[in-house]
Write a structure and sequence with these properties.
This protein is of the alpha+beta class. The protein contains 2 helices and 4 strands, in the order βββαβα. The two termini are 22 Å apart.
């Protein structure tokens, strides 16, 4: 199920995590060549992607909401 990005925070290892409108969190790493998300590096890039829909596997699994 696709869910929109509503915000971000960093995890304990300083990796960016997207907060989705469903209440789940999803890492949004820029880790070439496996994952190319250069937009995550800057605040402007992250702000531009607010509202972007990501596939939420946790919703598909009917998982409870995440907590920080």
């Amino acid at each position: 199920m696709k869910q929109a990005i509503t915000g971000y925070h960093k995890d304990e290892e300083e990796h960016w995590v997207a907060e989705l409108n469903c209440g789940h969190f999803q890492h949004v790493r820029h880790n070439p060549p496996w994952t190319s998300r250069p937009w995550v590096i800057t605040k402007e890039g992250r702000d531009d992607m607010l509202g972007l829909e990501l596939k939420c596997k946790k919703c598909d699994e009917d998982a409870p909401r995440d907590t920080q």
